[in-house]
Amino acid sequence: MRLFLTLVLGAITVLTLTNDPLAQVSSSSKSSAAVASMERKLQHIQSNAKVSQPDQTPTEFTEQEVNAYFASGAVKPPAGVQSVMFQGQPEVVTATARVDFDQLKAGHRSSNPLLSMFSGIHDVVVAAHVRGAGGQGYVNVDTVSLDGVEIPRFALQMFVEKYLQPKYPGVGLDSKFALPDRIDTAKVGLHKLTITQK
Asked: 20, 21, 56, 108 - which has most CB atoms within 10 Å?
């Protein structure tokens, strides 16, 4: 459940700090502090979910915490996905990654020429509207680009159906899923992700 919560937070996470309180700390200790802060918040969410009346005080995650947590190796992305970073604006998450599509598709081939663009190693940028309400998470992918070229939605849909859904049922360009650990709402704001439990 911890991994799932972290992936949900990663999918929903966004923000770019401009007035970082850790800005004067060295890069590695800043990263360590951010990972430790993320760990404490995840532990709080899990323990809060176990009580009969969860504390409804919002929990806020910063982009620095989430990105440091992913970079630390605490979350193992799918094979072929590297260097994942999250950023964005209210209600919109932009994720960037380096993706080896041959490794991601391992063992699955297609003769469809439209899917041939999903081969080799590419810089991928995904922008999506995300939110959580009533215990449900919603992710609606707006755009995906490979090396700066936007991919047509119908080609993305074919890729998702052929290569991702067999491994990850329920994943799509428009996804709805139950939020874990009694999370009721998840709101992406400018420079923060705020969740509440109920």
From this structure: 20
